[in-house]
Amino acid sequence: MTLDRDQIARRKRVTVHQSGDHIHEEHVVQNVNLEYREAVYKVTQFIWLLFGGLEALIGIRVILLLIGANAANGFTAFVYQLSELFLWPFRNIVANPAFQNYVLEITSLIAMIVYPLIGWAIVRLIWVIFYRTPTSQVTTYDRETHQ
User: What is the value of pTM for the model shown?
Assistant: First the structure.
């Protein structure tokens, strides 16, 4: 599906009311690009889905570290390795308090604040660049018929 900025779907509705010698005509032209707006909406929802998945992954990591989960376990190792890819920019910002195997990874909590802000900024940027509001133009004509 290609979206051309110059393609605008136009709908015209004409309403005519006659009362005796008086005719009232109303022309409503709507410029609606619903398919375009729906595509932009779907893209933004997909971005939120990706960032939501990232939040969940980091949240699971925080919980696993907090309860001292066994790092040799396959699931735990998978979560640690996958989330490490997204957490490296936040390493060494602050010290993470630990007691034996239990770690409160504050850097992950910081990432859980930063990544939704990045997601929000991307979605807002997409809406600012690509969103077009539907517009309408109403023209009315009143005339008297003389017989």
Answer: 0.69
CA nearest 80: which of 92, 70, 95, 89?
Answer: 70
Contact 123, 131 (CB under 8 A): no
State which H helix or E strand residue 91 sits in. Answer: none
Domain assignment present for residue 62? The answer is yes
Whether 11 is in a domain gets the answer: no
Residue 140 placed within a domain: no
Q: Which domain holds residue 104?
A: 33-133
pLDDT tens, residue by residue, 68-83: 999 999 999 999 999 9
> How many domains is the chain built from?
1
Paired tokens of 35: 């398919």
CA distances (Å), origin 84, targets 24, 142, 146: 69, 70, 83
